[in-house]
Amino acid sequence: MSIDNYLIEHCSPTLASLKTANLFSCAYENERALETAVSAWNELLRDKGVELLVLRKMNQSALIYVCRKKMLSADLKKSGVAKFLNTYGYSSTDTDYAIDRLKTRLKEQTDFPHEIGIFLSYPLDDVKGFIEQGSRNCLCSGCWKVYCNECEAIKMFNKFKKCHEVYSRLYAEGSRDILQLTVKC
């Protein structure tokens, strides 16, 4: 199993330390190979402050969360986040606890738990806006649906897009590997 392309395609902003986390789903044939690949990447990226976590396995597909736990810890301490997450059964904003609770929520629900936006560094008001309104009335969409601070979100979307383009080009031409592209924090 090769996770390299998934990291470049879906996680460049996290590797660049522009974003707390990204998610990707990948097929796997062998659970042992999946665990070995994730473990190997964690060993490589540990000193850079990046961790890969399997949030859910279902139908030979794994949902992998690539995150910077220090940034997630800061996101979970932002104003209003603890109260918001508490409504979904999160009794603490401790990083490891919150990730474990998210894993449980993913197993319990057939729908995707929308509070996951907090874990992906989406603004709280946009996460709430999506939960309350779905796709209706959003100001714009990119990495997420935006209900507040449209200008700020568009700037971030453009920054993420540029990062993805640069990382994809550098990786494709072979001038940088993933470890070289990952910013240490």
Layout: helices, strands, pairs:
Blueprint: H1 4-15, E1 21-27, H2 31-45, E2 51-58, E3 61-67, H3 69-76, H4 81-86, H5 95-108, H6 116-119, H7 124-133, E4 140-141, E5 145-146, H8 150-172, H9 178-181
Antiparallel strand pairs: 1-3, 2-3, 4-5
Terminal CA distance reads 27 Å
Count up the helices.
Answer: 9
Bulk shape: globular
**Mind telling me the C-alpha Rg?**
16 Å
> Oligomerization state of this entry?
single chain
Tell me roughly what share of residues is in helical segments: 40-55%
Strand content: 5-15%
**Major beta sheet, specifics?**
3 strands, antiparallel
| Average pLDDT, all residues | 96
Instruction: Give the H and E element order.
Output: HEHEEHHHHHEEHH
Q: What is the strand tally? A: 5
- Widest beta sheet: strand line-up: 1-3-2
Question: Which segments are poorly predicted (pLDDT under 50) over 5 or more consecutive residues?
Answer: none
SSE-based structural type: alpha+beta
Gist of the model:
With 185 residues, the protein is α+β, with helices and mostly antiparallel strands. It is built from 9 helices and 5 strands. The protein is globular and about 45 Å long.
